[in-house]
Amino acid sequence: MSDYKRILVTSALPYANGPVHIGHLAGVYVPADIYVRYQRMRGREVLFVCGSDEHGVPITIKARQQGCTPQDIVDKYHSIIKKSFADFGIDFDIYSRTSSKIHHETASEFFRKLYDEGKFIEKESEQYYDEEAKTFLADRYIVGTCPKCGNEGAYGDQCEKCGSTLSPEELINPHSAISGSPLVKRKTKHWYLPLDRDEQWLRKWILEDHKEWKVNVYGQCKSWLDGGLLPRAVSRDLDWGVPVPVEGAEGKVLYVWFDAPIGYISNTKELLPDSWEKWWKSEDTKLVHFIGKDNIVFHCIVFPSMLKAYGDFILPDNVPANEFLNLEGDKISTSRNWAVWLNEYLEDFPGMQDVLRYVLTANAPETKDNDFTWKDFQTRNNSELVAIYGNFVNRAVVLTHKYFDGKVPVNAKPEAVDVETLAQLPQIREAIEDYIEHYKFREALKEAMNMARIGNKYISDTEPWKVAKTDIDRTASILYTSLQICANLAIAFSPFLPFSSAKLQQMLCLDKLSWDDLGRAEIMPSGHQIAPAQLMFAKIEDAQIDAQIAKLQASKAAHEAAAKVSAPAPAKAECIFEDFEKMDIRTATVLEAEKVPNTDKLLHLKIDTGLDVRELVSGIAKYYTPEEMVGKQICILANLKPRKIKGIVSQGMILMAEQPDGKMRIISPEERLENGSTIG
After folding, report:
1. Helices 57-66 and 70-88: angle between axes, nearest 10 degrees
2. Domains, the chain, ordered by start
3. Which of 230, 237, 283, 414 could form a disulfide linkage to 136, CB 3.0–4.6 angstroms apart?
4. Rounded to whole angstroms, how far apart are CA atoms 413 and 424?
């Protein structure tokens, strides 16, 4: 703790356009919660702040897709996310949101102070504009063909198929995702944070003063700094977000990357309106940001630049970012529904929050990407939580009730093995403390499980159920030692597995234990009454795992089927201009239409081509009724060789467009033309 009096812990604001999945938990929220629970058990003053990030383009896109308002979207997912965190035991002091009034006021005031002090630069630039929708387009609203993999549905900021980061200028055939229209460029004015001016102090602060930061965090920061920092826009043209509080900035909001981290401050103000400043402006406060690797640059470079520009805020002491968690060997993808959603997990595995916390911590992507598999989840539960930790506790408690009526026995015949076993507990405490203080939660959890392994081995080696047949006093000493290890386990696992630790404390009839008790050889005195044994962890059967794998495979199959449907037909063989020149394509109007008897697909049409009135047969009855066709202007291939269909001589072919889903639509002129107008 050094000279710090208090610790302010923030975790990345989850984006409120969908539920939380296990990648979020492993990367951010479980490690943050472990750290906070540990510090609270040490008796330290800690504040744990989070909330929903509710602005930005993806939310407006989802609202358009669902025909509702952005507020409707964020209200829905804020509620789902908040409940999921609470159900999972993520113990925030406050979980608020960036659409709140206090956040809008705080973010506006933050911008205005920097604006009034000349900390921004103003720049006019050309940006893509949708003339049909009458709006500037954020990168996410621009779609086109990825120049790297050929995906025709790439966004202006990223191709989700190959994962490449893009700019709209790199897209092939960019167009508006809103209207489908081609794009034009128009001039617009925005404000920029001149990060290049901060490069010198950032280099010293990070690269010299914080060499203790995790290697993945330090390395990414160094890469950004070595590449040279550039001014970054803090505003954008959008109608959803915190309005830019400057005259003449109508239709502009604060860029979500700028307003979201201010949410940490506004949420603290909401919780502690009279004392929030001591958490954000006192040098004896330790600020720690828990984030994923995609947020490193914002929390290590951009947000510190914002705080320093404001003038009296502290800077983060550490930013222990994790890498990404993959799922069954594949990247987690919300768009492909390739994820394990927290709200669904809690429905499928009720009461098993700690199992997932354990597996995500044991497999945490602390310095490199890691993989979650359902089989590993099952194995870790059955062979570690059930077979080691749970088995040890169960044997110790059951035998105590069997031989000593549920009372901690007198340590009548201690032997060297008992002393040596208990002597290992303080060493494990020291190791857990060192690992947690250095944000190595995976190693800290290993040490806690090592304590369970020690207990399980001890009771297996001493075999009190056999000793009881000849030496009840020695049995008492063995169970005395075993129960002290159980009490230590309840403390050691508390930051990691809060639900099962609470269950174990209840079983041992212990009031709230402090971290200072960990490592003690006598936590429960002789004669202390304990409750009957409860099952700590339940075995997970193959059928449960098979169901989860099947659910994922069904998601993959559905996505692949949808992708296949949405893929355009492959290009045909190349032709020469002379081939095209042979085709006589003209406009015509349908005069009469009727179904061809004894068929489901054919319509018999009489059309005016401007040259003549003729008949043709077309297989469009599935898509158009005769009534819809009468009066419709169409395009036909007029010089197609006539052929007899169902006894009718058909002279020509209607031009149709077949969509990727197989649906056919008639190609009609944009405005009504004279019949017989040629197309070419």
Report:
1. 110
2. 6-113+255-322 (3.40.50.620), 118-227 (2.170.220.10), 372-517 (1.10.730.10), 577-679 (2.40.50.140)
3. 237
4. 20
CB 351 within 8 A of CB 498: no
Would you call 84 exposed, middle or buried from its count of C-beta atoms within 10 A (0-12, 13-18, 19+)? buried
More confident residue, 496 or 568: 496
For the segment 542-589, what is each residue's pLDDT rounded down to a tens digit?
999 999 999 999 988 887 776 665 445 555 566 666 767 788 898 989
pLDDT reported for residue 556: 85
* DSSP string over 529-565: B-PPP--SSPPPPHHHHHHHHHHHHHHHHHHHHHHHH
Contact between 563 and 152 under an 8 Å Cβ cutoff? The reply is no
Other Cβ atoms closer than 10 A to 642: 12
Q: Are 540 and 382 in contact (CB under 8 A)?
A: yes
Q: Residue 652 corresponds to which amino acid?
A: G
pTM recorded for the entire structure: 0.82
Residues 292 and 21: their CA atoms lie apart, in Å, by 13
Query: Which residue type does 531 have?
Result: A
What 329-332 contacts at long range (C-beta under 8 Å, 24+ apart), as own/partner pairs, is: 329/371, 329/373, 331/163, 332/21, 332/22, 332/23
Radius of gyration of the chain (CA): 33
Query: In a 10 Å sphere around its CB, with 0-12 CB exposed, 13-18 middle and 19+ buried, how is residue 656 labelled?
Result: middle
**pLDDT of 641-679, one tens digit each?**
888 888 898 899 898 887 665 677 888 887 788 888 888
